[in-house]
Structures are given as C-alpha cells and as structure tokens.
Amino acid sequence: MTSAALPLARTSSLLVPTVVKQCWLFMIGSALFAAGSAPVLSEQMGSQLSNLLFFIGAWFFTAAGLIQVFLSGAVAVAVPYAPGRMVRAEWLTASTQSFGTLLFNVSTTAALHAKSITAQEKLVWNPDAGGSVAFLISGCVAFIAFAHTGSSWRLSSAACWSVVINFVGCVAFAVSAIGSFILPGGNTVNDDFATWGTFTGAICFFVASLVVLPGAASRHRSQQRTAAQTSQNG
User: Fold this and answer.
1) What is the pLDDT of residue 148?
2) Which of 2, 70, 86, 122 gives a 20 to 30 Å CA spacing to 39?
3) Buried b (16+ CB within 10 A) or exposed e, 131-160
4) Domain extent listing, the chain
5) pLDDT tens per residue, range 171-182
C-alpha cells in the first residue's frame, strides 16, 4: 500500500460498522443521558442543558442502533412450515431498538423548543413513550435472539449479562415515560420516576455495552490480524 492510500484506508476503516463502534456509541449516548438526568447534577444544570445532553446523546444512540441493524444479518430465514419464512429475532430486536432511537431523536429535538403543554405532550412525550415501548419490545426479543445463538445462560457469560442488564434498562426507560406523562395542568405524573428511570436506564445501557466491549475488541483485533496476514500472503 502506498503512503497516498493510507489516509483513504483509515477513512474507510472508520466507516466500517463493528460491534466495538456500536458499544462505544451506545456508551457515549448513555453517558450523556445519565449526565442529563443525574438527580443532583441535572438540577444544577437546569432543563435547557439537560435537554441538550439528551439531544446529543440520542444521536449517538441512533448511530449505534443503525450499526446494530447492519450487523444483525438477514431480515428473515427459511423455515419448513407456513408461510415458509420467519423474521429473525436477531434482526427484530436490533431494528426495533433502532426505531426507538429515531423516536428519541424526535422527542429530544422537540424538547429543545417545546413551550406549550400541547407541544410537550404531542411532540415530546408521545415519541418518548413510543421509543420506550420500542426499547421494551427489543429488550424482550433480545432474550430470544440470545437463545438462538446457542449460548448458555451462565453467570460467567458477558453476553448473558448484557442481555439482562439491557432489559432492566428498557424497563427503567418505560418507568421514566410513565412518570413524565403530561397531566392537563402541565405537571408530570411523577418527577422522581421520570428522573430516576432515565438515569437508571442510561446506566444500565452503559454497563450492557461495557461488559461485552472487551470481548468484542479482542475479536476485532483477531480479525484484523487475520486480514493483514491474508493480505500479506496474497
């Protein structure tokens, strides 16, 4: 490879979706959501800065979700019974979560500008609740997807812990959505549910990615070495 081709190769490498990048993007997004909803810190920052952190964090979630969909493989697989094809759980959990991140983009963007009760309900809460439901569905389907990998449910399995912790995070986000429901007077159902649900969910999503990151990074380095050796031999 010539020196002129090196920058292009590095750029191409940055654009290649990997599990490592997926993990880091989810972790960065989660950290921003955690900072924006941290019980004491969020009060000091104020709603404007918290909403900005949520807005930025949601884009990291979306990027990670798209990578997850790309890496999840084919949408459906052939089966020996009607209708002949079945949607794969691996793709379904990834696509559902990715759809949820898009709804969070809508919600967090609207939160930066929404002033009226109607805007907060229809443009902020509705997509936020929809995103939380999508995450909850994804978290449930993830158990089926994990079972399809043939991996065993053992305490020493990082992937197993990731699925469980991710599900807890999905439940926490759902609790947050319930707590942040806008009442006719403009108040929310329960501010503590909204705050702690978001914070707990963000921490769970951070940890769910963190526990599988070392293994993903190790596999990625191994694949890079194999590819380099193949290139040299070729």
Assistant:
1) 83
2) 122
3) bbbbbbbbbebbbebbeeeeeeeeeebeeb
4) 17-222
5) 999 999 999 999
